[in-house]
Amino acid sequence: MFKIPLLLILLACVLACSRQYADPEEIAVTRDAAWEQRQMGMENIVLSNLPAPSRVFLRFPFYAGSNLLIGQGTESDFTHFDSLSQAIDFLVEEGTPILAIRSGQVERVVSHNTEGGLEEYHKALGNLVEVRHEDGTIAMYLHLKPHGSRVVQGQMVHEGDHIGDSGNTGYSSTPHLHLHIWANAARTNSIPMFFRTAKGPIRLVESLEYTAPEYDPDGRALPEKPLTPVPGLYASAWTRLAELVNGTANLSNASVAFTRWISNAMPNLKTNLQEITREARAGNRDAQKTLAVIMARKDLSRYPDLARILDPKNPQHPIVSAGLLAWWSISGTGKE
Q: Do residue 268 and residue 133 come from a single domain?
């Protein structure tokens, strides 16, 4: 009398397992345009449901090609709630150039603060730039580095202008750009923000990574294409380091060669980075693309070609660490 229930139980288990362990090809089929829209924050954007200012789609606030990870997104219970519910945080290195998302007039600049942290008093210490747009909305760019503003109060700026450099001042535990738009001068609530891409407007989603598009002179986003950095020692440093590591069979010798090359090249690397940064800030588009590539590639641990010496279990790890410290002293901020 137990046979039928037992068969039913086994059948239920088989069905459950078939649902839990779906065929990978079947999963791939479901990753259509709608799936991509959900992943990229493009789904269910209905213009008629948005406040009028949110229908003005924005430029990404970083140079084309920048890889941008969204840390804290909208409606977060950490700091993005109530009046700041529509704010987003871009996790970028200190010193990353920040570009205006819309044209307008600089309303306020704070640049003298030097401290950041998560104590209550840090909330009053954030460096910032505020830009008022023609419809009365005000964009706030927050946590800039000390003396990191590139504009002054009352100045007119155009979309895409370099207005400041990212930092870690104020109520902040890691370098990033906090961005939100006040609905009006009362600064009582923020509005939803949507950014222009070649595929259409998107909302930026927490924990997802985006690539800042390139825009034509009329502000239209162009399809993504690989960035080719201009020639230069710094821009080719990753290739050279990979060649050194892979061309030296002995792990100990490879580790020493890695650190020695960085140490010997430090002056020229720093000079080259400064030149690229100056040219980018002067409007050289090739230099801007190169700077975007540099900002995206700074973390050497992301490169499998270097994995054999960057492994913490490498007996020469102290030597490699010295090289990494030297590397970060060059490329950590991109300062002039």
A: no
